[in-house]
Design a protein that fits this description.
The structure is a single chain. The protein is built from 16 helices and 14 strands. The protein has helices at 25-35, 39-46, 75-79, 105-115, 131-141, 146-159, 175-188, 205-222, 233-239, 257-262, 267-273, 278-281, 284-287, 291-298, 314-323, 343-356, and strands spanning 10-21, 49-60, 64-69, 90-95, 98-99, 116-120, 193-197, 225-230, 242-247, 250-255, 289-290, 307-309, 328-331, 337-341. The strands form three sheets. Strands 6-7-8-3-9-10 form a six-stranded mixed β-sheet. The protein has a four-stranded antiparallel β-sheet with strand order 2-1-4-5. Strands 11-14-13-12 form a four-stranded mixed β-sheet. Helix 5 packs across helix 6 (146-159), helix 5 runs parallel beside helix 7 (175-188) and helix 6 packs across helix 7 (175-188). The structure holds adenosine-5'-triphosphate (ATP). Adenosine-5'-triphosphate is lined by residues 21, 49, 51, 69, 71-77, 231. GO terms for molecular function: ATP binding; ATP hydrolysis activity. This is Glycine/betaine ABC transporter. Residues 32-273 form the ABC transporter domain.
Length: 357
């Protein structure tokens, strides 16, 4: 999680959001609510398509919230409700406490321009404008004068490590660079919320990983609330604080990468997580045994026991276990000893993970 519970602030709230495409959407919605029809049944009976089905969730300020699922599961449809590019068939949407459903068109337009930015897979840059002009576009739309907007654009370009490329045309840059320009353009608007629709999917794996790392660094220093669509669970696990998994318009599970990998809610999610190495996501907290139980069986844990934070990842614990057979003391964020991890706890976790795979 981004911050501890007491300090969390909600940025986005969706309550009972439905989107049904098709002329008979109202009839279809009424019936699906009464009889829980499947996506296929709604299509056959009403010639309508369920895009989003009764989704309620909250996203915290500063959180990177990944939305993942197979093609057609409703990821883009869901995210396009956050800036009201799509009107929901039913439900409420609040951004920073503001009910965006009740905004008049002009206020909504301003809200979109100033508070929310989108980054797409296909870059959506103007090929025959300079990189700097592309990056400055959100401020041009806002009517900011040329000097100020080019200055802001140059700062954004520096953030994505493309200083010096401002005078090139967008089409002269490689795919990875164009995607960074897309990100810089979104950042120039200094939005509260970034909506990213498969931004790195078109890139080759090495560049993609590099951009993920750069994005994570930027997001943590700039504290932007980010909704990040991906169909790649590896990517979601790597960059998401939490992940929502969608199927046929429903959100079937929301949790931290660790929650999802350790406790998949159903066989659909289990199938996704089968290929994910537990080493990357599991934290000490999930594998430790309570300190009282350990000490009742084995006696007091020596003061010299190696000590780790409860959010430490499994990889670090395994490295320590290779060095020394001693049980490890796990501490909470206040430094209080809360658990113990032994070599056998680690082995059990690894073996269970391998069996799942
Ligand atoms: N404008 C539209 N009219 C009719 N049906 C639509 C429309 N947009 C989306 N849909 C349907 O809504 C469902 C969800 O589509 P959506 O594009 O949100 O899925 P997705 O998970 O983002 O897929 P992908 O990963 O392929 O982009 C799909 O069944 C799709 O066919």
């Amino acid at each position: 999680m981004v911050v501890e519970n007491a300090e969390r602030q909600t940025a986005i709230t969706l309550s009972g959001v439905w989107k049904i495409f098709g002329e008979q959407w109202q009839t279809a919605l009424d019936e699906v609510r009464r009889h829980a029809l499947s996506k296929q049944e709604v299509l056959e009976k009403h010639n309508c398509v369920i895009g989003v089905a009764d989704v309620s969730l909250t996203i915290d300020r500063g959180e990177i919230f990944c939305v993942m699922g197979l093609s057609g599961s409703g990821k883009s449809t869901l995210v396009r409700h956050i800036n009201r590019l799509l009107e929901p068939s039913a439900g409420q949407i609040e951004i920073e406490g503001v009910d965006i459903m009740s905004m008049p068109p002009e206020a909504l337009r301003r809200f979109r321009n100033e508070r929310i930015a989108m980054v797409f897979q296909n870059f959506a840059l103007m090929p025959h404008r300079s990189v700097l002009d592309n990056v400055a576009m959100p401020l041009e739309i806002r009517g900011v004068n040329k000097n100020r907007r080019l200055e802001a654009a140059a700062k954004s370009l520096a953030l994505v490590e493309l200083s010096g490329w401002g005078n090139k045309f967008a089409h002269e840059l490689s795919g990875g660079m164009q995607q960074r320009v897309g990100l810089a353009r979104a950042l120039t608007a200094d939005p509260d919320i970034l909506l990213m629709d498969e931004p790195f999917s078109a890139l080759d794996p090495l560049i993609r990983r590099q951009l993920q790392t750069e994005f994570m660094k930027l997001a943590s220093t700039m504290n932007k609330t980010t909704v990040f669509i991906t169909h790649d669970l590896d990517e979601a696990v790597r960059i998401g604080h939490r992940i929502a998994i969608m199927r046929d318009g429903h959100v079937v599970q929301i949790g931290t990468p660790e929650d999802i990998v350790m406790n998949p809610a159903d066989p659909y999610v289990a199938d996704f997580v089968a290929g994910i190495s537990r080493l990357k996501v599991v934290r000490a907290r999930a594998v430790m045994q309570p300190i009282d139980r350990y000490e009742a069986e084995h006696g007091k844990l020596p003061d010299s026991a190696p000590s780790f934070g409860e959010h430490e990842n499994l990889r670090a614990l395994i490295d320590a276990a290779i060095q020394s057979p001693e049980a490890m003391c796990i501490r909470d964020t206040e430094g209080q000893a809360v658990g113990v991890v032994t070599r056998s706890d680690l082995l059990t976790t690894i073996v269970e993970g391998t069996e799942t795979e």
